[in-house]
Specification:
The strands form 3 sheets. A 6-stranded mixed sheet has the order 8-5-9-12-10-11, with helices on both faces. It has a 4-stranded antiparallel sheet with strand order 1-2-3-4, with helices on one face. Strands 6-7 form a two-stranded antiparallel sheet. The chain is an alpha/beta fold. It has 11 helices and 12 strands.
Length: 391
């Protein structure tokens, strides 16, 4: 007789076995999972540190390139400009190219250091260029030794550098480059204007004659030509106006010949505020003294400029004033340089070259005459452009 199967116990036994297997598998899975996650995290952190290291090395390489490059497109090409802009501290030139790489403390330390020896390569045919930079990790985190291979007849530069691994800011730097024995000529700042009343005024000074056109001459000295006196006075007036803050345009500042029409074009194209033409006179008679000419239909501002100049020249000292006159000596119309210029202006005849007294006064009073012209310009401008003065 067949006995019935005991499924219940078989099933129960099977359940127990399955349960037992679960007890064994779960810890194993968790262990493997932990090992996998740990390994993954290790790779992640390793990769992050490597990336950070690579980024910092890139920053340090940019910094060192900025320090050692002396070619015309590199950091040192700006040295001269930096010196000119910072005349009072010409040696503090590091700041021009490295300030965003370093801490303030290191920047101050570098600013106090002498210019590296590479500076004098700047103007040579073989300037320094950075060809390769090698880094060697130090014992401390963020500490490196470096070796910079330079092109341009230069030996390698070695040194140490420290960078903050989190911020990427360089905190320390030193190298074996000897301090340069480079002397930068002391740059004296341009003198401040004596007064600034002429600021905003643009004046054209036109020394008459020049080059192949000597003008008149002093009969007692054959080589004493009018063109030279005109230029000497013109340059002196230029300097006096600049001292007062004015902008000055010279139709000529050397022994060059220009036609009267060309002189007018120079002044008109520049849009100057005043035009002042300089000459000296000549006559067979015993004539002497200064003359100031304005155009027949001159503006009130031109007349005022002439009258102010006459007054101030008399104060300096002249043999005689022949007044402010309209037209020209020939009586056939205005001087071309006054007729064809668009701005207020005058023509000054600064004494007769055939008169010994006028020649002596011209030579002795050249500086004073230049001041008189500059002061007349300022006085006339202030009287006619009060709104400009307030601005």
């Amino acid at each position: 007789m067949l006995r019935p199967c005991k499924r219940s116990s078989g099933i129960g036994k099977g359940k127990k076995m399955k349960t037992k297997k679960k007890i064994v598998l779960i810890p194993l899975v968790l262990l493997l999972l932990a090992i996998g996650v740990g390994a993954g995290m290790g790779v992640y952190w390793l990769r992050t540190e490597q990336q950070q290291d690579a980024n910092n090395q890139s920053i340090m390489a940019d910094f060192l390139t900025a320090v050692y490059t002396t070619d015309y497109n590199g950091r040192w090409s700006a040295v001269e400009e930096a010196v000119n802009e910072r005349k009072e501290e010409p040696l503090q030139v590091y700041q021009a190219g490295v300030e965003h790489f370093v801490t303030e403390a290191l920047l101050e330390q570098m600013s106090e250091r002498s210019i590296p020896a590479g500076y004098d390569q700047q103007q040579k045919e073989t300037p320094w260029t950075v060809e390769q930079i090698d880094f060697f990790k130090g014992e401390e985190k963020g500490s490196y030794a470096f070796n910079v291979q330079l092109g341009g007849e230069a030996t390698p530069v070695t040194g140490t550098i420290t960078i903050d691994m989190e911020s990427g800011v360089i905190t320390d730097f030193a190298d074996d480059l000897p301090e340069a024995k480079v002397e930068i000529e002391a740059l004296e700042p341009e003198p401040e204007p004596v007064v600034k009343d002429a600021k905003g005024i643009y004046v054209c000074i036109d020394p008459g004659h020049g080059g192949i056109d000597p003008g008149t001459h002093n009969p007692a000295e054959e080589a004493h030509y009018e063109k030279d006196d005109n230029l000497a006075l013109g340059l002196a007036i230029r300097d006096k106006l600049k001292e007062r803050g004015a902008k000055v345009l010279m139709t000529r500042d050397d022994d060059t010949f220009y036609k009267p029409s060309e002189r007018c074009t120079i002044a008109n194209d520049a849009g100057v505020n005043y035009f002042i033409c300089l000459h000296r006179n000549y006559a067979e008679s015993e004539a002497k003294g200064i003359e100031i000419w304005v155009a027949t239909h001159a503006s009130d501002e031109s007349v005022m400029l002439g009258e102010s100049l006459e007054k101030k020249l008399i104060e300096v000292g002249v043999s005689k004033s022949r007044g402010v006159q309209l037209g020209s000596q020939s009586g056939s119309g205005d001087y071309m340089v006054l007729r064809n210029t668009d701005m207020p202006g005058l023509l000054a005849e600064m004494g007769f070259m055939g008169n010994e007294e006028d020649n002596r006064l011209f030579e002795e009073n050249l500086d004073g005459y230049a001041d008189a012209f500059a002061d007349a310009v300022v006085e006339t401008w202030k009287a006619n452009h009060k709104s400009n003065k307030k601005k």
